[in-house]
């Protein structure tokens, strides 16, 4: 297929996509004029029945928690696939030791004082903000997925301010692996506890507390916390695996250099 033909097909496809999107947007109801009963029922159930003021978290971690469980294990399986694909290059040693050995031979350029100061200054802020997002998902926009990603940036900031060995000192690979796996299993465990109590899977069995307080919403908060641990751990595992692979490849690519 010639470049001219590909451009023509692209223009037709882009025009069709824009037309469909415009059609859909023009068909939306006016702001504040919701036309379906589902949102009204969910809003009522989230606050009155679940004691959660953030309806999105009530949907994610209670009303449709089984969907969220599947999404979490999609991430878990993806990370496991990356680790399996990269396992060959670091198989003879523990990944932490391999990364440290390679880094000893050829490390990244040391960061400037400005970069080091900025990254270290952001560590504490990122930890507090990530913990806030994870633990307040039932009250304000956020939750385990968003907070877990924020917490995962902390080891990256440490790496940018120092090197890979310091990263593995504050986030040991084996500990992160275990935490991620236990948190993923805890999500299922919370559902099985409900089954053991003769309730449907993932039904709330904890005290709901007072609406608007951090200890409210029962299992919604618990699931948000274990999700935050799993998501944060998953991204740290990805970071460690990619860094180990990169640092091991660098000497091979520069063997011909004097």
Can you walk me through this structure?
With 258 residues, the protein is an all-alpha fold. It has one domain. It is globular, with a radius of gyration of 23 Å. The C terminus is likely disordered.
Low-confidence stretches: 101-106, 252-258
Strand content: under 5%
Number of helices: 10
Number of domains: 1
The succession of helices and strands, N to C, reads HHHHHHHHHH
Secondary structure layout plus pairing:
Blueprint: H1 3-26, H2 37-49, H3 55-63, H4 65-86, H5 95-105, H6 113-135, H7 144-161, H8 164-170, H9 173-196, H10 219-253
Helix pairs in contact: 2-3, 3-4, 3-10, 4-9, 4-10, 5-10, 6-7, 7-8, 7-10, 9-10
Brief characterization of the structure:
The protein is 72% helix and 0% strand.
Salient structural properties:
single chain; 72% helix; disordered C terminus
């Amino acid at each position: 297929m010639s470049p001219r033909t590909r451009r023509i097909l692209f223009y037709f496809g882009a025009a069709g996509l824009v037309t469909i999107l415009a059609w859909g947007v023009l068909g939306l109801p006016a702001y504040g004029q919701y036309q379906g009963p589902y949102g009204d029922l969910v809003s009522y159930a989230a606050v009155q029945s679940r004691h959660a003021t953030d309806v999105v978290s009530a949907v994610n971690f209670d009303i449709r928690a089984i969907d969220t469980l599947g999404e979490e294990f999609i991430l878990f399986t993806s990370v496991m696939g990356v680790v399996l694909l990269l396992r060959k290059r670091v198989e003879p040693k523990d990944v932490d030791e391999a990364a440290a050995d390679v880094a000893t031979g050829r490390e990244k350029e040391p960061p400037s004082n400005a970069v080091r100061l900025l990254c270290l200054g952001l560590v504490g802020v990122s930890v507090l903000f990530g913990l806030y997002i994870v633990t307040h998902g039932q009250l304000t926009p956020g939750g385990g997925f968003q907070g877990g990603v924020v917490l995962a940036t902390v080891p990256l900031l440490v790496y940018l301010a120092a090197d890979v060995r310091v990263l593995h000192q504050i986030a040991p690979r084996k500990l992160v692996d275990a935490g991620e796996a236990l948190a993923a299993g805890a999500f299922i465990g919370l559902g099985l506890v409900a089954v053991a109590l003769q309730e449907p899977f993932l039904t709330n069995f904890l005290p709901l507390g007072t609406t608007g307080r951090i200890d409210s919403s029962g299992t919604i908060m618990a699931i948000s916390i274990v999700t935050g641990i799993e998501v944060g751990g998953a991204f740290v595992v990805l970071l460690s695996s990619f860094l180990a692979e990169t640092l091991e490849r660098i000497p091979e690519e520069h063997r011909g250099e004097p």
